[in-house]
Design a protein that fits this description.
By secondary structure, this protein is α+β, with helices and mostly antiparallel strands. It contains 4 helices and 3 strands; from the N terminus they run αβαααββ. Strands 1-3-2 form a 3-stranded antiparallel β-sheet. The longest helix has 12 residues. It is elongated, with a radius of gyration of 15 Å. The two termini are 15 Å apart.
Length: 98
């Protein structure tokens, strides 16, 4: 959808929770309370109006962006202004419409 809205050469920035990082955190502390916290924060996201509908890690995010037609994919640093919070459980990439 976003690809169709951009002009050629336009840039997109995508930031999502990094589920690989979150899964590792849960495995290190697999309690019901921890899983409930993950669901409340990352699945039914209280941090934004629309809940997340899909889980991404770095590999899937870059694959989806590439498959959509974006090129020159670059990982965004966690202190990038597009990150709501500078935390390590997020992952972001920029891409250019070819």
């Amino acid at each position: 959808y976003w690809y169709s809205l951009l002009k050629k050469g336009g840039m997109i920035s995508v930031v999502v929770p990094n589920y690989l990082h979150l899964a590792k955190e849960y495995i290190n502390n697999p309690t019901a309370e921890r899983l409930k916290e993950f669901n409340d924060i990352y699945i039914y996201s209280e941090g934004q109006e629309s809940p997340h509908k899909y889980a991404y890690d770095e590999n899937l995010l870059t694959q989806v962006m590439h498959d959509a037609g974006f090129t020159d994919l670059k990982r965004m640093p966690v202190d990038h202004p597009y990150f709501k919070y500078p935390v390590d459980w997020q992952i972001g990439y920029t891409g250019i419409k070819a």
